[in-house]
Every structure is written in structure tokens, then in C-alpha cells.
Write a structure and sequence with these properties.
Shape of chain A: globular
Order of helices and strands of chain A: HEHEHEHEEEHEHHHEHEHEEHHEHHEH
Helix content of chain A: 40-55%
Largest interface: A-B, 29 and 26 residues
Number of domains of chain B: 1
Largest sheet of chain B: none
Oligomer: heterodimer
CATH class of the largest domain in chain A: Alpha Beta
Low-confidence stretches of chain B: none
CATH superfamily of chain B: MetI-like
Helix content of chain B: over 70%
Number of helices of chain A: 15
CATH topology of chain B: MetI-like fold
Largest sheet of chain A: 9 strands, mixed
Distance between the termini of chain A: 75 Å
Radius of gyration of chain B: 23 Å
Shape of chain B: flat
Number of helices of chain B: 11
Number of strands of chain A: 13
Chain lengths: ~375, ~280
């Protein structure tokens, strides 16, 4: 009798559980703000619209290393029936690799909002064709942040910056290439400025001999580093700017505005997008090929890339440039919020000096060249 | 069937041996193989060549940092243990005794986080100096570089070495020390010329263990200092996290094994000498 009771209650439990046990696992590469975006903003909104669904947000770490971890997980689970992640938020370099290796699902035809993102970033990830596999979550941009009290006329080009750093030793700080993408972007910008044909690095075709032309640029960067402060990360650079320990440093524009809005940076901080340009990048929403919850994942991404969420969450709350085309946000956003994005970096500057990262093979060559010739 | 004494002994150590084999020897040989082979297969030293090309200065940096930390740890531990054993002011000895072990219970990562705010240019330490009027704000410099790493290591490892050393000093025959005092030697001289030579083996063992511990810490160099130059642990983590490049990371691992093997040899030699003596 007792056994029967236990058995029936167990059966009832099992029968009842699927209703509440639907979990959508969202893995985000990037800094803490990316994880917070899903955990505090998007997740609760999606849970409200889909009762019984629980959104679990995990962060895999800043920079390409974070995307690399997602890649390794999906690659390791290639042979199993399902993967642990249902939605992944990844960088461009990893997106290209994952598409090539068949780890991502070609899902955008099933998501209406995909039509709203028509920019180059929706199709091309550092030289790999990713159309159908990704929808940009947002675009972001790096720029130099400076303390307007300490620097009256900020350098306008990389060459001027090099001069300035020589005259003001240890007042420029960046995080090298191991502590997040703002330092990586600075190094890529340096090679664009001093390494020769920047266009070829961004558009290809790849030629393994090109890297030999960067020796001089790297040697100059090594000399430049002697006068620079190396900070412990993207947030580390902002921290040191905040404490007045450095006067100029490369930062992500969105983090800069968010920190300023939170009062973690003084109001006398400004941004400058120096020429010939610094890289920016989108983050992508993708669905792993083996996701167990494809329909739910598609619904999640559809919500995330809808004009209203892009306006309220991406632009207004987190200060990113929208992932879908800007014209779709008309009417969803007041002008003040939109203009805030362009306080220091004007749309014209963004158009001329906002560059993509180099195509993946050049990108790897630059990073390895930096470790070999600058850091060592 | 009866089991002989010998077989029983083997049976008893078997679980321990199996644990060492499964959790240490197997991964060790796996990483050794990966360090010495190409991704396509075939034995090569490519990974070592790359590790040297990219990280030779970090290897030197690591050795210098760890050796310097050992040196300062040893000095600080001698001062603390010496004071505990030979100190005559009860108040100082009591306070020191109560305080010096605390860092033992604080994890490296917490220590690193504290140092980050303590040693920064406008951090707690410099701000306190400025507030006390000892320093002008403009003179403040950040210690968040190699000096910060050494400071964190020394702070964290000193209690461990001091604990072992104080134990060894307490076990010494007080008569020899008191004889020295009676003949008019200062306490410093008693410590340096009478006490320390007798506890050298224990001090050396404690320092060797600290050496190996510091060699393997990832959080402190990552959090306290920027990435150039940095310690090998950070480079290993970067190779794996950013590129999935296990071969180079394992080559760096082999370099670390060799460094700690040097320390281990000293440790084992001491152990052997001791067993031979008893």
C-alpha cells in the first residue's frame, strides 16, 4: 500500500514537472554587462511572455577567449544528441569558425526580425560568410577615453597619440591583448595606422607574407609600450581613468557611457575616435545546431532583436548601437536617448573612423606578432 | 589462501597509488605528450620553440618573481619566528603570535583583490600616507606591477614559513641559546649564529614548498599586475582560453615542471639526508 502511494505520487510529480521545467540556457561571451543584460533585462521579460520557461544566463568571460570557451563546449558535445546551450552570444571570430565547422543552426529564415538587420555585419564575420546563422545583438565601437581636465586637446590621430605618450609617460594606459578586446582593438588600430595596407587587412584576400610588413609598426609599438601603463582589463582601464591614474585609454563606447551613467566615471571624461580609425564589432545571437529548444531559442532571439527591445534595452539601457538597422528604431525611441549615443563620437566620425576588425587569419597574425615582437 | 605480509602491504597502498596514477600521472603524461607532438602527429619541439619565441621574457620574469618572493618570505619569517622564540617583551610576542597566522586562512584570490585596492596609485596605502602628511599626492606611484605580485606572495606565504620555523625553533634545546646569552651575545647574534644554523633544513623545506606554491598561482599575477610581462600561469591560461592552443600551454607547463623539479630535488635530498641520519 505504502509502495503504491509513493509510486503514484512519484508518477504525479513526473507528469507535472515538464510544465515548469523548461529551461533556456543562454551563454554569453563578453564582459559582465553582457551577462547582466540577459539576466536582469531580457531573461525576466522573456519569462513573463512564456510562463513556465526559465532563462538561465551564463557568462563565459571577456574577449575572444569567452567565445572560444563556447566553441570548445559545442565542439566537445558535437557527438551527443543535444548541447547544453540553447542560445549563444558570440564574437565575430568564433562565429566564423563555428559556422565553418557546422556547429550553428541556420535559423534566421524562421525569425522575422532577421529582415531588420541588413548591414554587412549580418552577413560577413571577419571574412566568413555567416548569413543565415547570426543576427547582430548590437554593434559596439572602441574609442579613446580621456580626462578632459588633464588633456585639453586630445590627440586626433595615432601618430599624435604616440607623440603625446612620449611627452606624458605612463599617462596612456591599455590592457595589452590578454585582458579583453579594448586592448586588442587598440593594437589592431595601431597596425591599421602604421602597418601599411589597412583595407587589405579588413577585406582580404589573405596573404601569409603580409605580416612581414608589420615589423616596424611592432617595433614602434614596443617603444610606445615603454611609456604606457598596462592595465588589468577593459574594466581595469576604466578604473584607472576613474582614479586619475591614467589620462587616456582605449575603451568600449558602451561601457564608457554605462559607467558614466552609474557614476563610476567622472563627468569630465570624454571620448575621441582617432583616425585612421579603431575597430568595433557586433556580438551575434546564434543557436547551436544541437540545441534541444530550437523553437524557444528562436522566440527568444526574435524578442531580443525586436525594435522595441533594441530601442529600450540595447540603446537606452546599455548604450550599445543597435544590432538591427537604425531606421527600424524610429518612433520607438525619443531623440534625446538616441543623441546620447553620439555625444562624443558623431555619426560622421563613426562612419569614417569606425572600422571592422581584420579578417580572421590576419587577426591571428597580429595577435601572435604582438606577443612575439612587442610583449616578449 | 593466506596473504603474505608483503602482499598485504601492496594491497594497502594500492588505493593511494591508483589515485596518484589516475589523477596525476595520467594527466601529466597526457600533457607531456601534447607538448612534444605536432597537432597533425609526429614528435616535434615546435610547441617549445613557440613558447620560447612568445614567452621567454615571461619565463625569466616568473623565476625572478618567485625567487625574490622566497627571499623576502624567508627574511620576514626569520624575523617573526625569531621574535616569537627570543622576544622578551611579552606584549609584542603575544600580539605577534595572535596576528601572524591570519593570512594563512585567506585565499590567494582574496589577497589579490585586497592588494588591488591597497597598492593602487590612489589606493588605501598611498592615501593613508598622504593623509598622514608623509607624502605629497603627486609622489604617489602604483605598486600594481611586479612589486605588487611580490608583496602579495610574501604577505601570503610568510605565515606558513614562520609557522614551520617557529615550531623548529621552539623544539631547539634552550640551553644552547641561553648559554650564548649568558656569554653576552645579543639576541640577534644568538638567532643568526646559534639558532638559525640548527633549523636551516626546516627553513629550506618551507621555502621550497612556498616556491612551488607561488609558481602555480594564477589569480595573483592576473589580478594584481597588467599582462606584460606576466607569469607563466597567465600565459598558459591565455593560450588555452583564447586559442585552445594546448600544445604551447603544455610546453609552458613542462617548463614549470622543470622549475619546480629543481626545487623538489632539494626537498628530496634533504629528506634522504634526514632518513640516512636517523
Amino acid at each position: 500500500m505504502r509502495l503504491l502511494t509513493i509510486a503514484t505520487s512519484l508518477a504525479a510529480l513526473i507528469a507535472a514537472s515538464p510544465l515548469s521545467a523548461q529551461t533556456l540556457n543562454v551563454a554569453s561571451a563578453g564582459d559582465q554587462n553582457m551577462v547582466d543584460y540577459v539576466k536582469d533585462y531580457l531573461g525576466p521579460m522573456f519569462e513573463k511572455a512564456h510562463p513556465g520557461v526559465k532563462v538561465v544566463s551564463v557568462g563565459t568571460g571577456p574577449g575572444d577567449a569567452g567565445s572560444q570557451k563556447i566553441y570548445e563546449k559545442l565542439d566537445a558535445q558535437k557527438g551527443s544528441a543535444t548541447t547544453d546551450f540553447d542560445v549563444v552570444v558570440i564574437h565575430q571570430k568564433a562565429a566564423g569558425l563555428m559556422v565553418k565547422e557546422g556547429l550553428l543552426s541556420k535559423y534566421t529564415a524562421d525569425v522575422d526580425t532577421a529582415k531588420l538587420a541588413t548591414g554587412d555585419a549580418a552577413r560577413n564575420a571577419l571574412g566568413t560568410d555567416v548569413s543565415g546563422y547570426v543576427i547582430p545583438m548590437f554593434q559596439s565601437q572602441t574609442a579613446l577615453a580621456y580626462n578632459a581636465d588633464m588633456v585639453k586637446t586630445p590627440p586626433a590621430t595615432f601618430a599624435e597619440l604616440a607623440d603625446w605618450a612620449k611627452k606624458n609617460p605612463k599617462q596612456f594606459g591599455y590592457n595589452g591583448i590578454k585582458g579583453g578586446m579594448s586592448g586588442v582593438a587598440f593594437v589592431a588600430g595601431w597596425v591599421y595606422a602604421f602597418g601599411g595596407d589597412a583595407d587589405k587587412l579588413m577585406k582580404g584576400p589573405y596573404d601569409a607574407a603580409t605580416k612581414a610588413n608589420w615589423d616596424k609598426a611592432f617595433a614602434e609599438l614596443k617603444a610606445f609600450n615603454a611609456n604606457a601603463t598596462i592595465t588589468p582589463g577593459n574594466a581595469g582601464t576604466l578604473d584607472m581613468l576613474n582614479r586619475g591614474e591614467i589620462a587616456i585609454g582605449p575603451v568600449w563606447v558602451d561601457m564608457f557611457y554605462s559607467w558614466q551613467a552609474d557614476g563610476k566615471l567622472p563627468p569630465n571624461m570624454k571620448l575621441k575616435l582617432v583616425s585612421p580609425g579603431m575597430p568595433g564589432q557586433p556580438m551575434y545571437y546564434s543557436i547551436p545546431e544541437k540545441s534541444a529548444q530550437k523553437k524557444l531559442a528562436e522566440a527568444f532571439i526574435a524578442l531580443a532583436t525586436s525594435p522595441q527591445v533594441q530601442a529600450d534595452g540595447i540603446v537606452k539601457k546599455f548604450n550599445w548601437y543597435p544590432g538591427i538597422d537604425a531606421k527600424n528604431l524610429e518612433g520607438k525611441l525619443d531623440k534625446a536617448a538616441w543623441d546620447k549615443l553620439f555625444t562624443d563620437v558623431t555619426p560622421a566620425e563613426l562612419a569614417s573612423n569606425g572600422k571592422p576588425f581584420p579578417i580572421a587569419p590576419y587577426f591571428n597574425d597580429i595577435l601572435e606578432g604582438y606577443e612575439k615582437k612587442v610583449a616578449n | 589462501m593466506s596473504i603474505s605480509q608483503r602482499q598485504l602491504a601492496l594491497l594497502l597502498v594500492a588505493p593511494g597509488l591508483a589515485l596518484v596514477a589516475a589523477l596525476f600521472l595520467y594527466p601529466l603524461s597526457f600533457s607531456l605528450i601534447s607538448a612534444f607532438t605536432r597537432p597533425q602527429g609526429g614528435i616535434s619541439l615546435d610547441a617549445f620553440r613557440k613558447a620560447w619565441e612568445l614567452y621567454s621574457s615571461d619565463m625569466l620574469f616568473t623565476v625572478v618573481i618567485v625567487l625574490a618572493s622566497c627571499l623576502f618570505t624567508g627574511l620576514a619569517a626569520i624575523i617573526i619566528a625569531g621574535t616569537l622564540t627570543l622576544g622578551e617583551n611579552r606584549w609584542i610576542v603575544g600580539t605577534l603570535k595572535a596576528l601572524y597566522r591570519w593570512p594563512l586562512f585567506i585565499p590567494f584570490i582574496v589577497a589579490a583583490q585586497c592588494m588591488r585596492t591597497f597598492l593602487a596609485k590612489n589606493g588605501l596605502m598611498n592615501n593613508s600616507f598622504v593623509a598622514m602628511g608623509l607624502m605629497e599626492p603627486l609622489q604617489a606611484v602604483s605598486f600594481l606591477d611586479w612589486r605588487g605580485i611580490i608583496a602579495t606572495f610574501v604577505w601570503k606565504q610568510t605565515p606558513f614559513v614562520a609557522l614551520l620555523l617557529a615550531g623548529a625553533l621552539a623544539a631547539l634545546d634552550r640551553a644552547t641559546l641561553e648559554a650564548g646569552r649568558n656569554l653576552g651575545a645579543t639576541r640577534l647574534r644568538v638567532l643568526v649564529e646559534l639558532a638559525l644554523p640548527q633549523v636551516m633544513p626546516q627553513l629550506l623545506v618551507a621555502l621550497v614548498l612556498s616556491f612551488v606554491t607561488m609558481l602555480s598561482v594564477l589569480s595573483v599575477p592576473m589580478m594584481v599586475a597588467g599582462s606584460q610581462p606576466t607569469m607563466l600561469t597567465v600565459d598558459m591560461a591565455f593560450r588555452i582560453n583564447a586559442y585552445g592552443d594546448y600544445a604551447t600551454a603544455n610546453a609552458l607547463g613542462v617548463v614549470t615542471y622543470l622549475l619546480s623539479a629543481g626545487a623538489a630535488i632539494i626537498y628530496l635530498k634533504r629528506g634522504m639526508a634526514k632518513e640516512g641520519a636517523t
